[in-house]
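ESCALATION

Customer reports they have been waiting on this structure for their group meeting. Please prioritize. Original submission:
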Amino acid sequence: METTNGIIIVERIDEKLKSKGENRTHIARALGIKPQTIAAWYARGTVPAADTAIYIARYLNVSVEWLILGEESQAPQLTPWQKELLEACAPFDQRDKEDLLQTARAKSDRYTSSSETKMA
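Update from on-call: job pushed to the front of the queue and completed.
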């Protein structure tokens, strides 16, 4: 895996700021840091602290992974139906979530067992 340094990260920051019609002063002000701090990351090739990287990513509306590595996660995306299911369960308390998960696993086991029996 390629080593990421501050120069590359600042170039990504600049790229996103330009697309928003902003500059380093805007993000520095929003983060409560000096614009010179961003310039120092570039000049020294150092990377921002982890918490600062998170705030930068949020400000730029990108993932921390993209900010640091230049690529997005390869994790599978949820389907609209899966998102709807998760959103519907969000207000449940922990006990209800555990009960629902147990029920879903039991049903899944029954479907898996019946599929295996039909194949045999």
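Sent to customer with the following note: The mean pLDDT is 86.
Escalation resolved.
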